[in-house]
Amino acid sequence: MTIINSISKLAISKIKTGMTISLGGGHNVMNLAEELHQSSITNITLCSPSELTRMNVHPLDEIKWIDLAFNGCDSVDYQLNALKSGGGIHLFEKIAAQMSKEYILLVPEKRVQKELSSKVPLCIEVAEPAIKKF
Questions:
Q1: pLDDT, tens digit (0-9, with 9 covering 90-100), for 59-93
Q2: What is the pLDDT of residue 31?
Q3: Where are the transmembrane segments (predicted)?
Q4: Which value, to the nearest 10 degrees, does the dihedral of the CA atoms of residues 93, 104, 34, 84 take?
């Protein structure tokens, strides 16, 4: 069994019937989505900030609260600062995090270091409402 599979199994153990769950982006979250699909957990509401994960789930603007939000990242330090690269959904991930009672990063142990990795490229996202139209 790989680390990624054990991460998704641990994550799915936190999900209970009747919860509203947000699934962000990344491989670990996709593995969790597959585990959820194969599980016997019923009556959950799914939403996602990710276009790739969003198929057949509720958009964030239809959700009032989220019990658990799961997301991946590329680097985490001991103070739980996290770096994400690429993806272009950071704003919507932050919205999902703010709506959540509990926010959980699905991260392999090797990505947790004393300091954030300088090898992770920084990503800048420009949100549509922030663009001034002339």
A1: 888 999 999 999 988 999 999 998 888 666 788 88
A2: 86
A3: none
A4: 50
Confidence (pLDDT) at 54: 67
How far apart are alpha carbons 73 and 50 in whole angstroms? 14
Q: Which long-range contacts (CB under 8 A, 24 or more apart) does 112-117 make?
A: 112/76, 112/77, 112/78, 113/75, 113/76, 113/77, 113/78, 114/77, 114/78, 115/77, 116/75, 116/76, 116/77, 116/81, 116/82, 116/83, 117/74, 117/75, 117/83
CATH number at residue 58: 3.40.50.1360
Q: What domain range includes position 111?
A: 3-130
Q: Which two tokens stand for residue 26?
A: 């990344």
pTM (2 d.p.): 0.81
Residue-wise pLDDT for 5-27, tens only, equals: 578 888 999 999 999 999 988 88
- The domain total for the chain is 1
Check if the beta carbon of residue 47 is closer than 8 Å to that of residue 60.
yes
Secondary structure letter of residue 114 according to DSSP: S
Give the integer Cα–Cα distance in Å for 87 and 103.
18
| Tokens of residue 120, six digits | 């992770």
